[in-house]
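Worked example

This section walks through a single chain of length 233. The input is the sequence exactly as stored; nothing has been trimmed or padded.
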Amino acid sequence: MASLYPFIKEDILKDIQSGVYQEDKMLPPEREFTEKYRVSRMTIRRALDELIQDGVLIRKSGSGVFIAKNKKSRSISKVSIQTDEEIVKTYGKVIIKVVSIKTVVNHPLALRYLDVKTDEEVYQLKRVQYGGKTPIVYENIFLPKRYFNSLDKIDCTRSMSQIVHETIKVKEATNRSIEVEARLASKKLATYLEVAKNAPILQTTIIEKNAENNPLYCGVNSFDATEFKYTSE
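Given that input, the structure is written out below as tokens.
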């Protein structure tokens, strides 16, 4: 007997397209689908999982399966969401919340991107930027203490450009390189971004340098890829 999940997948997709199930609304529980189609929960789950893989549905941790929203477009070059007019227009005020500030040594990311010695102290600053009440980006930032020698005593809820500009011992960043990678959300990252564990995440690693091409700081920024699509412009 042929598997029924392709038929069920297609039938659910038709209901989405016809408006039976609407964007950003939760689908009925799997139990209702098993009763409707008279199949096992495993068959229903396979149909739903394929629709999730196709980007039609998303699974939210602790909530259920939802119709995927039409993704908002952002330029990958816009590092700060505070100056992103589209974010401000959509969500209102941008708020930065500091998760933690601590001193680290011999951290692999700092060694890789900041040209620091293995025993050199580096600040690790973790923050979440919100558009209104919606978490947009989780930031994991590394700043050498030789430049930012009193980071724990200043206001770290400002943009990084403001922090760099107002730090006495360093010139404003003038050069930037960006690396982009697709990842799945870890349990901790999923908590910060309020997404399901293993949800798709777009991760950018940004290295800011001064006019002499010396690394000033690097930041690993994680964005919810179910909420946004990104362009190179």
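What to look for: The chain is about 25% helix and 35% strand.
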